Amino acid sequence: MTSAVAATAGIGRRENLLTRLWQGNTGPVLIVVAAILIFWYAMAVHMNAPWQQRLNDRAGEEVSFTQFVDQTWSQKKPLLPAPHQIVGEIWNATVLTDINSRRSLAYHSWITLSATLLGFAFGTALGVGLAVIIIHNRASDQSLMPWIIASQTVPILAIAPMVVVGLGAVGITGLFPKALISMYLSFFPVVVGMVKGLRSPEAIQIDLMRTYSASPWQVFKMLRWPASLPFLFASMRVGVAISLIGAVVGELSNAAGGGLGVRLLTGSYNGQTIQIWAALLLAAALAAILVSLVGVAERFVTRRMGGAA
Amino acid sequence: MNMSLVAGVVIFWLAAWALNEFLVRRFSANRAVRLFVPLLFGVTLLVLWEGITRGLAVPQVLLPPPSAIWARLTDSTSILWADFQQTFLKSVLAGYAIGCISGFVVSILVDRSPFLRRGLLPIGNFVSALPIIGIAPIMVMWFGFDWPSKAAVVVAMTFFPMLVNTVAGLSATSAIEGDLMRTYAAGYWQTLFKLRLPAAAPFIFNALKINSTLALIGAIVAEFFGTPIVGMGFRISTEVGKLAIDLVWAEIAVAAVAGSAFYGLVALIERATTFWHPSIRGGGA
Amino acid sequence: MTSVVSAKNLSLTFETNDGPVEALKDVNLEIGKGEFVSFIGPSGCGKTTFLRVMADLESPTAGDISINGMTPDEARTNRAYGYVFQAAALFPWRTVAANVALPLEIMGFSKSEQQQRIARTLELVNLAGFEKKYPWQLSGGMQQRASIARALAFDADLLLMDEPFGALDEIVRDHLNEQLLKLWAETNKTICFVTHSIPEAVYLSTKIVVMSPRPGRVTDVIDSPLPKDRPLDIRETPEFLEVAHRVREGLRAGHSYEEEG
C-alpha cells in the first residue's frame, strides 16, 4: 500500500462506516421499516376515525385535528391499534404482571414456547434418525420414504383439533398433544434435508474413503455428517418456525391449557384488538428469536469447522 | 375384540407387501405395474385400517374404521358440499389467486428497483417465517366472519412464498444469457419476457405448488378462529367438540381429495410449461 | 481496405479485492473489412476482455476504440455485430428455429423475414432439418452451430467469437473449423476469433494477434502468408508450421510460458 492510500484510509474511516451501512442491506431495510411504521400510524388514524367520530358526536365534543389524531391512537378497542399501544400492552402484560397470573403474556408465551421446543427437539431427533436409517439401508429407503412423504399429505394443522381432543379423551392432555403436532410438522423438513445432506458428498470423496478401507461409521462421522450440517441447519430453521405454528394451532382446541394461541382466540371472542395484536406480535417475536438462534448456532458450528462464516 | 380379523388383515398386509416388492424388483419398467404398486399400497392401508380398528375395538372417538367414514360421507353429502363451496371455492381460490398475483407483481417491482430488493426482500424473508395464520382473528375484525376474512389470511400466507421464489427465479439467469440479450440491445421488458420469466418458471411453479397446499390448510385453520355456521374448518372444530369423529374424517377425506386435485392440476400445468427443464424431462442428454 | 475496428492506446484496469489488475494496456490495433483475425494468448492476456470491449460488454478505462466509425455503445444499439459465446447459451424452452429467431424478434423483423433468415442461416451451418428440435436433443457441436446461425441471422457484418469451440473435442473442432472457413468465404464477414489453440488460430486466420498477460498487451501481429483456400491438410505444410512457430515465439516473448507469481 502506498502512503497516499494509507493516509486516505485513516481519514475516510467515519464515512466508510456510514457508506457501508448504506451500501449493505441495513440502510434500505431501516428506511422500509420506517416507511411501514409511518404508513401504519396513518392507517390507524384512517381506520379508527369513523368510530372516534361517532364517539365524539355522541359526547357532543369538538376536538382539534391533533387531538382527534391522538384519540384515534388511544382507543380501547381500535380497529387498528397504533404500534405504541401494542408495545404498551405487551409491556403491561409481561413486565408489569405477575408471571404466574393467567393474565401474563410471559406465562402464555412460556406455554407456547415449551410445546414448540419439545416438539422441535423430538422432530429433529426423529428426522435425523430416520435419515440415517434411510441412507444406510436400501430396503428402508424404498419403504420408508414413500410413507414419510405420504405423512405430509395428512394436513395435521387441519386435524389438530381432532388430535388434541382425541388424545384428551384417552387422558393425554397438556403439553404432549401440542408437542406431538409440532413434532409431526418439523420432522419432515429435517428428514428431507438430512437425506439430501448425508448423500451430498461427491462420489470421488466416497471412493477416497473406500481406498482407506474406512468403516461405514467412519465414513459417516468424518464425511457424511460434516457435509450434511448446512442442510441440517437450513431444515432446522424451517422446522423451528413451523413447530411454533403447530403449537399455536394446537392450543386453539384446549382453551384451558393457555398459550399464545388461546390469547388470540379469547381476544377475538371478546373483541379485544390490542390483546390480539399483542399476542400475535409476541408469537412473531418468538419465531424470529428461535430462527435467529438457529442461525447463530449455525454460524458458530461453521466457524469451528473452518468454514467461511 | 376379534383377533382373527386382526390376524387376517396382517397376513393380507404382508402378502401385499411381498407382492409389491416382487413387482418392483422384476417389473419396475412396466407402466401398468407402476400404477398398480401404489394402488395396492393404498388398498392395503385401508384394509389394515379397517381390520385393526374393528378387530382391536379401537374407540371410535380416536379412530373410526374406513367403512364408518364412508357411510357418514355418503350420508352427509349436502353438508360436505356446502362446506366445500364455502372453504375451497370461495376462500381458497380467491385467496390463492390474489396472493399469487400480488406476490408476482411485487417481485417484478423488487426486480426493477435495487433499493426495494435490499430493503423489502429481507423483510419478506423474515415475515415468511412468522406464524401468519395468527392474523386470522384480525382479519375477522376487518372483513367480518364470512369467507373474505379467510381469503385474506390465504392471501397473506401465499404472498411470501410467491415473492421469495419469483425473485430467486428472476436472478437465476446466468451471465452469459444476460450478455447475449445485451448484445441484441434488448430492453428491460424484452429481456424479462423472452429470457428471465421463462427461466424463472420452474421457481414460480415451485411456489404455486407449495401455495396450493398452504392455501387449503390456511383456509381451514383460519376457520378455527370463527366462521359462520358453514365451512370445512368450522365443521372439523365443532364436530370434534361433539366427538363425531367420523364426520371429521369425512371432511378430511374431502379436503385431501380437493387438495390433491388442486396440486395435481398445478403440477400438470407445470409439466406443460416447463417441459424443457431437466427435472421434468428426467435429466436426459 | 476500410477499418472496421480501430483501437488506439486502449486500456482497461479492473479494481479487484487484491488490487488493480491491468487487463489491457495500450492496445493499438486496426482490423480491416473481411479479415479473419484470431486473438491468441494464455489466460489473463486480455483477449476475451478486448472482444468484450468491442461488444460494449465492458468499458475501457483509457484510450479509444471505434467499431464501423461508432463507439461500441452505438455499434451495439445499431446491432453492428453478432456475438458467439463459449457456451451455446441457447434457451432450452425454444426450438432451434425459435432460438435463431430470438434476435430477429427483438429487432422487429417481420414473421416472413424471420422464416427466410432462419432457413438460410440453418442451411449455412448445416443444421437444415433440425428446426423443431430442442437444444437438449442436440450434441454440443450442433448446439454451438445453432448459436453461430443465431449470430448470423441479422446480417451484422462483424462476428465476434469467444472460444466457441473450446468445449468440444478435437475431431468435432476440426470439422467446425472447416465449416467456419467455408462460411466466411460465402458471407465475407469480418471475424474476430478468440482462441487458446495455436493450430486453430493459424488455420483459420488472415491475421493473428498474439497477446500476453500481466499486463494484458499485444506482443505481435502476424499477417498470415497462407492462401485463402485452405484444406485441413495445410496444417502439415512447412509454411503452416512456420507461422505457428512465429506465434510461439511471440508467446514466449510475452513470458507466457513462465510460471505465475
Structure explained in plain terms:
The complex is a heterotrimer of chains A (309), B (285) and C (261). Chain A has 309 residues and is mostly helical. Chain A folds into two domains: 3-78, no CATH class; 105-304, MetI-like fold, CATH 1.10.3720. Helix content of chain A is 78%, strand content 0%. Chain A has helices at residues 3-11, 13-23, 26-59, 65-72, 83-94, 105-136, 138-151, 160-169, 175-198, 203-211, 216-251, 260-270, 273-304. In chain A, helix 6 crosses helix 12 (260-270) and helix 8 (160-169) packs across helix 11. Chain A is globular and about 90 Å long. The two termini of chain A are 27 Å apart. Chain B is mainly α and 285 residues long. Chain B folds into two domains: 3-58; 73-281, MetI-like (MetI-like fold, Orthogonal Bundle). Chain B contains twelve helices and no strands. Chain B has helices spanning 3-27, 31-55, 66-75, 77-112, 114-127, 136-143, 147-170, 175-183, 188-223, 232-241, 245-273, 278-281. The mean pLDDT of chain B is 86. With 261 residues, chain C is of the alpha/beta class. Chain C folds into two domains: 3-80 and 157-253, P-loop containing nucleotide triphosphate hydrolases (Rossmann fold), CATH 3.40.50; 96-155. Chain C has eight helices and nine strands. Chain C has helices at residues 47-54, 72-77, 96-107, 111-124, 140-152, 170-187, 198-204, 238-253, and strands at residues 3-16, 19-32, 36-40, 62-67, 81-84, 158-162, 190-195, 207-212, 217-223. In chain C, the strands form two sheets. Chain C has a six-stranded mixed β-sheet with strand order 5-6-7-3-8-9, with helices on both faces. Chain C has a three-stranded antiparallel β-sheet with strand order 2-1-4, with helices on one face. In chain C, a hairpin with a 4-residue loop joins strand 8 and strand 9 (217-223). Chain C is globular, with a radius of gyration of 18 Å. The chains are: A mainly alpha (309), B mainly alpha (285), C alpha/beta (261). The interface between A and B is large, with 49 and 49 residues.
